[in-house]
Amino acid sequence: MTTIIPTNLRNEMQRSYLEYAMSVIVGRALPDARDGLKPVHRRILFAMHELGLGPDRPYRKCARVVGDVLGKYHPHGDSAVYDALVRLAQDFSTRYLLIDGHGNFGSVDNDPPAAMRYTECRLTPLTRDTLLADLEAETVDFSDNFDGSQQEPTVLPSRLPQLLLNGSAGIAVGMATNIPPHQLGELVDGVTALLANPNLGIPELMRYIPGPDFPTGGTILGQSGIREAYTTGRGSITMRGVAAIETIQVRGRPDREAIVITELPYQVCKAALIEKIAELVNDKRIDGISDIRDESDRDGLRAVIELKRDAYPRVVLNNLFKLTPLQTNFGCNMLALVNGEPRLLNLKEFLQTFIDFRAEVITRRTHYELRKARERDHILMGMLVALANLESVIALIRAADDTASARAELVNRFELSEAQAEAILQMQLRRLTGMEAGRIEAEHRELIAKIADLSDVLERRERIDQIIRDELLTAKQRLNDPRRTIIEKAEGEIDDADLIANQEMVVLVTEQGYIKRLPVDTFDRQRRATRGKSGARMREDDAVEHFITCCNHDTVLFFTNRGVVYALRGYQIPAGSRTAKGTPVVQLLPIPIEEKVTSIVPVQEFASDEFLVMLTRTGFIKKTALAAFANLRANGLIAIGLEEGDELRWVRRARAEDDILVGSRAGMAIRFRADEEQLRPLGRTARGVKSMELRKGDELVSMDILSCEQRERAEANGECGPWVLVVTADGFGKRVPFSEFRAQNRGGMGVIATKFRDQGDELAALRVVSCEDELMIVTARGVIIRQQSEEISQQSRAATGVRVQRLDEDDTIVGVAVVPESAEDGGSAFAAEEEEEAEA
């Protein structure tokens, strides 16, 4: 009997359409923010995992994979499944391949792939190690397939932020997503930085993740579109292919200039681009092109656009950028499913969603491992009971009528569980030997320790965060590759530095790894030999270790004891008050726990004729071109090769015509030239050469550079020469003419720089200064005074100096810095103060 139910047509259409729309949004078109996959991609990878198609197994026909996906998990058309599989295996579509394809999988010319019966595939190591790892450890939920005959995962336990790693694109009902791919190492650095400091903002995260990294390379013009996309979830990124102007030689004809295209913007078809250029030439919209050739081969893309003799290559190239897809836009729409609902996410929300998901996966995996460990230990404890009562157990089993009665008797007599009794009954006779009994006891002890460790992981969130960090760094070490897309600053674009005044500042780094910056004007000018009233005091249990003055727009290079260099712009260092302890350096830079910042160097411009001179704790010195450190990666760069037990301690900027001054704790100093004869340039990974011969018990404490400009300025002003400021730990100082330190060959003993007034005093700093230089002297407790160098007495090398600062009993001098000339008016901050006083 048919039942007719009257229904309002509008309500029925609205309800049915919404159900259909949500089905498309959730079940087909949008990726999950946790593993970055759509259902079809997830089902393909899971089906291949079930088939055992690992990277170490032979290839299997794609038709077999597609058949399994259709029959078990994805009841749609075979072409849709095969197209999705092919895209995961195309190196020009996917930044990090999830499927290793064998055969014809299409080309950048938009050629179609071969039929699925001809192509073969298997999983890549990245998929196996990061997407499918721990799938059997109850880390994710499983659900029924379309007919209830199979179980499939609702999400894969990805160890990498896959959605940002490979990006995604999809069109749903009433909404769409378009997420660009990124570089693996940069994503790992961004996630680890967010783990270390959950309060990081998007500008700070963009230091680690500067922008997308497309599989076809190319360049990105400007960061404004990237910044907008990362901040709001939507933005337009301008992409441009890589084209160079070359002179080509053709036999029988004079040399011609040509535009050679070697990289294309993401998702631009090469054949369509060449066709578009030819069409524009035929329509006379672009002049100056005589021939177009596609010279691409297995070594890479190469499209040659030969120019006429009277053409202007740069004009033609600009027209190509303007009129063809050689320059195009990538419209970011960062939409993904979060808890089954579509959400527009910014960069930090993407990373935080991944971190929360990984914490959940690790928690579930730990619960699983803990349960398995306890179950196994429970069995071992039953075996140990049986071994302790071996004769009674054997007699009991021999006297039993059957297995069930033996099991029941074991449970009753020895207070065992059913599982323990069954394990004892299944023990082989060889397990009764003394060696096997020892192995059982050893395994029991190992399980006890493992259970305690797993319980600790579940009780402490910081342990989970550390596991996330370790897994990310392991994946980075194994799978990282160089960035392909270069990000260039667009003409007229305003960056963060343009919005910040280029003022003088002081940067302080403490022994415990805290850093902060303060304006130079924070510290009042004081008279010599006064106890500093205005200071940047740290915590009582911490002390200032490194101290420089620079400007907000300068690049500050941070060198660690392990010989690695990191970089920050001056304004990126968090500002603090004089009494604040600062921000941990590890929240700003990805410095491992075992490393420590030992030197900081401000750089205004990476000049080609400048070098960085580096000195290690054991006395090895080298110079390396400053330009080698112009483009530092977020995760740092090796600055010097070190022997085991050695550390990098001091780094200074110098030119070949400068002099180097090295001082030891016992008050000795050596001066030698930085030219080719004494110190030839070496590469970043070189160790260096011997700088100074030290007496027993002595060690190096300071290094500075005398520039040729300082010598020339001193001669022009009629001074008796540049000065060497010698300051001891107890607060005594003096100015010694640089000429008293005679030039020697590198590796000598040096000369006496100062005599000490009190026994136990030692050299704290040697700085090259001029009379007009303004100094800042800092103590271990963070007290800073400012004064002019001319206020410090001039004495000889053999003198003890005068008191430059009165110290508390438990305080010592740790460093001296020269205040740079003001970036705003070219003079010292004190010059303006003195002018105001004079006018008053």
Automatic annotation (TrEMBL):
Any single GO BP term: DNA-templated DNA replication
Key words, A-Z: ATP-binding, Cytoplasm, DNA-binding, Isomerase, Nucleotide-binding, Topoisomerase
Job description of the protein: A type II topoisomerase that negatively supercoils closed circular double-stranded (ds) DNA in an ATP-dependent manner to modulate DNA topology and maintain chromosomes in an underwound state. Negative supercoiling favors strand separation, and DNA replication, transcription, recombination and repair, all of which involve strand separation. Also able to catalyze the interconversion of other topological isomers of dsDNA rings, including catenanes and knotted rings. Type II topoisomerases break and join 2 DNA strands simultaneously in an ATP-dependent manner.
Disordered: annotated segments: 821-840
Catalysed reactions, as listed in the record: ATP-dependent breakage, passage and rejoining of double-stranded DNA
Full protein name: DNA gyrase subunit A
Chain ranges of the Topo IIA-type catalytic domain: 30-499
Motif GyrA-box, chain ranges: 526-532
SUPFAM superfamilies xrefs: GyrA/ParC C-terminal domain-like, Type II DNA topoisomerase
SMART domains linked: TOP4c (SM00434)
GO CC terms, sorted: chromosome; cytoplasm
Main location: cytoplasm
Any GO MF annotation of the entry: DNA binding
Species this chain originates from: Gloeobacter violaceus (strain ATCC 29082 / PCC 7421)
Assembly behavior: Heterotetramer, composed of two GyrA and two GyrB chains. In the heterotetramer, GyrA contains the active site tyrosine that forms a transient covalent intermediate with DNA, while GyrB binds cofactors and catalyzes ATP hydrolysis.
Active-site residues (renumbered): Y118 (o-(5'-phospho-dna)-tyrosine intermediate)
Additional note from the record: Few gyrases are as efficient as E.coli at forming negative supercoils. Not all organisms have 2 type II topoisomerases; in organisms with a single type II topoisomerase this enzyme also has to decatenate newly replicated chromosomes.
Subcellular location: Cytoplasm
Enzyme superclass (EC): isomerase
The keyword Cytoplasm is assigned to this record: yes
EC number: 5.6.2.2
Homology family: Belongs to the type II topoisomerase GyrA/ParC subunit family.
